[in-house]
Amino acid sequence: MDRKQRVINTLNHKESDIIPYHIDFTGQEHETVAKYLGDNSFLEKIGIHMHYVQYWGWPTEMPLKKGHFLDAYGVEWNRSGVDKDIGIIDHPAILDISERTYKFPKIDHKRIENDIEQMIATKEDKFAMGAIGFSVFERAWSLLGMEEAFMAMLAEPEALTQLFNDICDYNLEVMETMLKYSLDGFYFGDDWGQQKGLMMGAENWRKFIKPVMKKLYAKAKSKGKFVLQHSCGDIISIFPDLIEIGLDCYQTFQPEVYDIAHVKKEFGSDLSFWGGVSTQRLLPFATPKEVKSETRRIMDIMGKNGGYIAAPTHAIPSDVPAENVIAMLEVFENQ
Hints:
Blueprint: H1 3-11, H2 27-37, E1 50-55, E2 68-70, E3 76-78, E4 88-91, H3 109-121, E5 127-132, H4 137-144, H5 146-155, H6 157-178, E6 185-189, H7 201-222, E7 226-230, H8 239-244, E8 249-253, H9 260-267, E9 272-277, H10 282-285, H11 288-302, E10 308-312, H12 322-333
Parallel strand pairs: 1-5, 5-6, 6-7, 7-8, 8-9, 9-10
Antiparallel strand pairs: 2-3, 3-4
Helix pairs in contact: 4-5, 6-7, 11-12
């Protein structure tokens, strides 16, 4: 059975010969593991099941001070600190949401097409996806600043709703280009959760974010694609909403915030789950033996009747020992 079919089976809640698995790495951790293995191309050899191109707005060519870059949306990011992969915002692009003067950048459709074509050309037998990172809430707060986005939910709800709708229209245009190609699914990245509950609360999520996600999911579904959603943190209160609007698979699935056996029992007939192997506690701090034991336990619970893609709960960060990555991978590969 090829890798694509294993993922399709799991999204249809069917078991396969093995549980499909996937690993993403931060740039620093990739270097660490490559050095440990003595192989810079190790990622091509470990049998991961997913292959995707994620649009989030490329850096511009405008030179900034070291460790800083300006993205296509006009936001200045600072990667000079610990986080070398995303960074923090130094200067938002919208200073006053009530003015409604912000103009979205022109979409470089040709570049998107080139990225998707390259992805398809190299996907082999993997499950192929288009993806939009910073898809809705994260795009709003990156443009406004986090505090301003939360305050706008109370002080400027109409202006914030308009911004979300503008973001949605922009993303639908990006999706239109991606969905011209033969993809298996579509993936959205948008963090809503914290360690306990949603950052903005379920009521505000339903008011501001759910209507937009419904439109984006419907666009993917209209082309016959599976829908996969990333959100860090505890978002269990909106699982029924996500199922209602068409979500097939939720990622990332953190054991620190979920009783995984309960969630599998309660929602496993409607949702598939991607993640489960902790990058917060297990992988950075356990021994390789403990990593193997816990990875097997999670896979035994989550893999019953399909509906599970075994994976770390996030792109593996730089504090994880290479030995623990290899221990987890050995369990994935030797089912």
